[in-house]
Amino acid sequence: MNEARDDLTDDAFLGGRLRLLQPRKGHRAGHDAMLLAAAADVQGGERVVEFGAGVGAAALALARRTGAIDLTLVEMDERLATLARENVARNGLTARVLVLDVEAKADAFVAAGLAPDSVDHVLMNPPFNDADRHQPSPDVQRRSAHHAAAFTIETWSRAALRILKPGGRLTLIWRADGLAAILAALSRGFGSVAVLPVHPKPEMAAIRVLVVATKGSRAPLTILPELLLADAAGAATPQAQAISRGEAVVQLSKR
Asked: What secondary structure letter does DSSP report for 178?
């Protein structure tokens, strides 16, 4: 890596099949992004948008797995968006990167080419640490990524609902203790909600939930069996290892 860019790291994902430049300090992509990519049931040719894409980890991992999709990354931080564009190019992938606030009004989305009822699938990993319950990080960028007002999940879900086609899908990852907020937000306009709890070890409480929902569906909620990241000794489970290498998907629902 160029010494002039020592504020960045060059990290390998998917067993080395995806390489990403990302800031050395601040919010950094990791296992959550790979889980999100693995949970997105996307077919070739579909129009896919990731909200809060950062440097592109989840979206580009998905693109590496699925091949030809019409991919758009939405990121409000210009520096991260610039890195995302570079990561698209250096991995030989194709995607648009938009500098856009997910909480912007509908007109801003239309101007950026994201009209209502025009997208097959939305991915999102919203900022999810409530500042009233978690000690803020001294790093401004990390604080921005991890501390959100209570309305964030509602606002982001509403934006996804607006741009998704009828029958389009939203896939997201969030903290497990925020599940009530997710279900409340998705109750307006989404159905066929499936929730998969992600546990760090056996007999430990879930730390994340993976959720998929379908626009306009009236199908009931489904709670799926847990996903374990590690065994009791702390070793990564075979499923978690396969997800990290991009060799397995997380099945949340049927088409």
From this structure: G
